[in-house]
Amino acid sequence: MTILTAASALLVGCGSVQTTSVQSYDMAYRLGQSNSAASSLPDAPTPDLEPTIRQAAADAEANYKYGDAAAHYAALLQKHPEEQDLILGLARNLRFSGAPQQAAQMLNVHLAKSGLQPKLLIELGKDYIAADQTNLAVTALGQAQSLAPDAWDVYSALGVALDYQSNYQQAQDAYRSGLKLAPNNIDLLNNYALSLAQSGKLDAAIAILQSAVNQPSVSAQPRQNLALLLALKGDHDGAARLIRTDLPDDMATNNIRYYQGLTVQ
To answer: How far apart (Å, rounded) are the C-alpha atoms in residues 255 and 260?
Structure first.
């Protein structure tokens, strides 16, 4: 089993995720968690309801109700079809809800109208990664990089795409470029560490993830990725401590049992 297979069986970040079982970790953290399909689109909101719908969209996304969030963003876009934050919100939540190809199609329509926009291209790259179209992702993210070379999230998403192509050295170059712009960024540190682990540099990967986990703002996911790497190293006690930090007892027990078979010889 490769590190990427294990981590995928366990995904930024590229987005907010819900901590679930070992089978959903890596893609959920690095690109986004699939939870529910986008529902049918409501009518455009009347002016007096618009603030309520905007808040409902944000609340639904925060509570992992991605299909509901996508429906709210779609309704708002009917009234404000060129508002970039709404376009990004709809695309992101379509991706999170398991419809990345639909998100990519929608973004391509907007890009054809508006011209190349870095934020839209970054999201398009993430959608292509989630749709397992990494060649298209690398192209979109390369365009974004040329337009916004100081945007750290370009390099994070590009690194993920390259990792999924097994181009680990290029991926790590991308993460290092991002870390020059955002030295303590947890998403970059997490993704860089997983890339190093995939390329056989497990000790370096653990050291980098430990530096991410020691930051006050760290979420559960980097801790659980560190637990995975410690288990691969053979430190099952250390892995178990981290697993039990975030997961309920029954899920923690299942994950600990799974990790016990992951030691790299």
So the answer is: 9
Separation CA 158–CA 111 (nearest Å): 19
Q: Which DSSP category does 260 fall into?
A: T
The answer to whether 17 and 28 have CB atoms below 8 angstroms apart is: yes
Give me the average pLDDT of each 10-residue run along the chain (265 residues): 43 35 37 43 68 96 96 95 97 97 97 95 98 98 97 98 97 98 96 97 97 94 95 94 93 90 68
How many Å apart are CA 194 and CA 229, to the nearest integer? 8
Q: What would the two tokens of residue 48 be?
A: 């007096």
Q: Is 34 helix (H, G, I), strand (E, B) or coil?
A: coil
Q: What pTM was estimated for this model as a whole? A: 0.82
* Domain ranges (residues) in the chain: 3-34+120-259, 35-97
Q: Could you give the CA distance from residue 103 to residue 122 in angstroms, rounded to a whole number?
A: 12
| Lookup: tokens for 38 | 């986008």
Are the C-beta atoms of residues 97 and 33 closer than 8 Å to each other? no
What class does CATH assign to 3-34+120-259?
Answer: mainly alpha
DSSP-assigned states of every residue in 128-166:
HHHTT-HHHHHHHHHHHHHH-TT-HHHHHHHHHHHHHTT
Segment (H or E) for 246: helix 236-246
Q: What's the chain's Rg over C-alpha atoms?
A: 19
Distant-in-sequence contacts of 135-144, Cβ < 8 A, 24+ apart: 135/165, 136/104, 137/161, 138/162, 138/165, 143/116, 144/118
